[in-house]
Design brief:
With 354 residues, this protein is α/β, with parallel strands linked by helices. 53% of the residues lie in helices and 15% in strands. The protein folds into 2 domains: 1-39 and 332-354; 111-235 and 248-329, 2-enoyl-CoA Hydratase, Chain A, domain 1. The strands form 2 sheets. It has a 7-stranded mixed beta sheet with strand order 1-10-2-3-4-6-9, sandwiched between helices. The chain has a 3-stranded mixed beta sheet with strand order 5-7-8. Helix 1 (2-34) runs antiparallel to helix 12 (333-352) and helix 4 runs parallel beside helix 5 (160-175).
Length: 354
């Protein structure tokens, strides 16, 4: 018993100290962020040019000098011929429009695939950058050109309201009439799958973790420990269910039942959200909180195709221009420390949650 007492006391002290540190850092980050209005930069990377550079670098190493030289000359001739044809076509088109109202067919512009990366933590904090990236894409993407957005998604889930907002951001892409594809290379579980299911198409690596359509809430209670040492804890609320369960107060059966009902309601909303976008799923079988590897998730129709994001982009490069869009915020040293602490705590929580 003495061991349990010492352990409980140590745990309580550690928890208190952790909360105090997080509070100090959180307040500092809050006030620092209040002094700046949306400072950051939007970066656009031409992935097609990057792939071309990869190929040229490799060929430079593996081809002999004469073969490489011939290939480079051929590529230059093809590029020159392509530009010449485009200029001639534009000139002829302008001439015909001047002469009469008839027009000649013009080669349509290539499709664009805009690539986003979302690496989710417990609070889905990446949604702040995601909303800016999506807004930027929506100002330029054209449904009539069949432009597409590919989201490389990695997340084990987290807070319901945070991932609900992240899913709503992805829905903006669909509402604009753009094709949305989500690629899961490692994990899209719980809130991660809440986001993924919004897509027209979900691709996943064979061993990616998918699913976990469930809701979890848990917290320790120190009431008996405090009572044993004659420590009073008072909590004043207005409203019968303002606080159903407590860390330090005595929990009641009525509070537990209310809390469980709220969890069940959240689960039901989660299932309705999924069925809105993937009505083919059998949620009586799948909404149990279990997860599946990609190869099994495909047979359950949780994902549509087994494919990595790398292969998907290499295929898309044959018919579309690829642009990776990234919004990067500027953080002070204090903010970076706070972000690192929160990230470490997230990893700790995720490692101990079932």
């Amino acid at each position: 018993m003495e061991f349990l007492y010492n352990y409980g006391l140590f745990f309580a002290k550690t928890l208190t100290l952790t909360i105090a540190i997080i509070s100090v850092i959180g307040v500092s980050v809050f006030f620092a962020s209040r002094q700046r209005e949306e400072e950051g930069e939007l970066h656009v990377t031409d992935l097609g040019a990057r792939f071309k550079h990869y190929r040229q670098t490799l060929e430079h190493s593996i081809l002999d000098a004469s073969t490489l030289k011939l290939q480079q000359k051929q590529e230059k001739r093809e590029e020159k011929a392509k530009l010449k044809a485009q200029k001639a076509q534009a000139k002829e088109h302008a001439k015909n429009r001047t002469a009469d109202s008839t027009t000649i067919p013009v080669e349509p512009p290539r499709r664009r695939v805009f690539v986003l990366n979302f690496d989710g933590d417990m609070r889905a904090s990446g949604v702040e950058a995601l909303r800016i990236e999506i807004t930027a894409i929506l100002t330029a993407a054209k449904p009539e050109l069949e432009d597409e957005v590919l989201v490389r998604l990695e997340s084990p889930g987290g807070l319901v309201h945070s991932y609900g907002l992240a899913a709503s951001q992805l829905k903006r892409i669909r509402d604009k009439g753009l094709r949305l594809t989500v690629a899961v290379d490692k994990v899209a579980a719980s809130g991660g799958y809440m986001m993924a299911c919004v897509a027209h198409k979900i691709i996943a690596a064979p061993f990616a973790v998918v699913g976990s359509i469930g809701v979890l809430a848990q917290l320790p209670n120190f009431h008996r420990l405090l009572k044993k040492h004659d420590i009073d804890y008072e909590q004043i609320t207005a409203g019968e269910y303002k606080r159903t369960l407590s860390l330090f107060g005595e929990n009641t059966d009525a509070g537990r039942e209310k809390f469980k009902a709220e969890i069940e309601e959240t689960h039901e909303l989660f299932k309705q959200h999924i069925l809105q976008f993937r009505p083919q799923l059998n949620l009586e079988l799948l909404a149990t909180g279990e997860h599946w590897y990609g190869i099994h998730a495909q047979s359950q129709q949780l994902v549509d195709e087994l494919l990595t994001s790398d292969d998907y982009l290499l295929q898309a490069a044959q018919y579309a221009d690829l642009y990776e869009v990234t919004y990067k915020e500027h953080h002070s040293l204090l903010e970076k420390m706070g972000i690192q602490v929160r990230s470490s705590l997230d990893r700790l929580l995720l490692s101990i949650l079932p």
